[in-house]
Amino acid sequence: MKKRIIFLICFLVFLVGIDFLFFRKIQFLLPNESPWNTNHFFNFLYEYERIRSLPKTKKRIIIVGSSVAYYSLDAKALEKSLLEKFSLDVDVFYLAYAGNSPLYVYLLLGWLEPLAPDLVVYPVNFIDYRLHRTYVLFPEGRNDSVEETVMVQDALTFTEAPQSLWVFPWETIREVGSAMDMETLSRYLVSSGFSFYRYKDIYEQNLQNLFQHRFGRNTSYHSYMGVSIPEGVNGLGWTGKQFSFYPTKKMEEKGIWLEVTPFLLSGSSCQLEFSNGETKQVVELREPRWTKIHLDLAFFRENKQITATLERVWFAHEASGAYLDYHWDPMGVRLEQTFGLEEPKSGVQYIREPRTEDFRYNGMDDETYTRYFYYRLLEGLEKRPGIGYLVALKNAKERIRSEKFRPIFHFRYIQKIAEHFRNRNLPFLLINNPENPISLRWYEGSDWYKDHLQYLQSLESGSVHFWDIHNALPMQGFSDFHHFTYVGMEQMNSIYAERIGNLFPK
């Protein structure tokens, strides 16, 4: 019996040791090769560990929130503007991820103290309050009368908030554990105690990336992270009719992979010509698949830019299946994820690069943009179930305009967040962020919208500041209801810098 107890104790010590060593330490020492806007929770955790390991040599601004936050500000551009306009030499960091609601920003507050921020910035928008969930759960329901405990329980479901189990299990238990059933509570307890369970669904993606980038074809991915293409490449790696690049040793040894769709071929082959001004090579694309191409060795004799030109293009709105999308951009071939790189990028979890979809609205008038907006974001739900949340948001904004404002659940957590910073005399800037003028029209003139603004304004006092800029950006600066294009982000940078810079003593 004694031997069994000793064996059990040794086993538990070994398990806890391995759990701590690998899942809490080693995995964050490996390079993070998950690109921006993917693998959200691992990127968030990796970034937190990175910031915590840095010695503090300057004042720190930390941006918290959801994708609304990290689509709105560029950390390096903001640092540059603050230095130029206010002589403020600061570090700007993100601790934001997609779907992060006020409840989980509140649960994050205890994590901020080791980082010693001098200012915390929190941009919010309608999507962050998750008010559309009421109408999804109760088609005839109302946000001014729904039972709050039901919405709390809904917010704890894995589908709605995987971060509660993956990132904040213990904090979630302490805050809303009394609202959990026994099965849910047991899962959160196990997740709190063992990192291998807590991180089991997120850590492996980075390991897969590391393996694929070194030994694979890099043809299965969500977000392009190769070299910059002068003619532009979209977020998924699709080129237009032309794309240019420089030859590399890796290309010479392993060739390049390009995805060819049946819609480019249109029943016949398509010519792809490579040229650097002196050497030309024509390739016949015949099969709709990922195709390996070996460039002529003459291209590698000198480091001259190569331009690839397709015979024709295809359009996603005329396609079907996984290639169907409601936009009008001319499409070419898809590049492998790490195209043009000798070594894959790492540590780019919060670095946004411009893509072709960021520029499609440049010069577009309001009438054309409005038609495009409804077509691209709200039509074809039966073919594109992924736009369901946008349809639900539109429905929510149109319905809530006839309701009375009621500061429940996530609004209460915004109040708690404000109180946290006020009690610590730590500067905090809450921003009612810009919204697309088209979706803003659906509810801006309502009593609900006016009262919700008054509520947010009422939180301002002491070290807590509120800033309402909901109509500060024209529609062409938005990719949807609330996310900025890269161009929109650049346009807003100086506006954010002006307000943030004035919060620091002169």
TrEMBL record:
<protein>
    <submittedName>
        <fullName>Uncharacterized protein</fullName>
    </submittedName>
</protein>
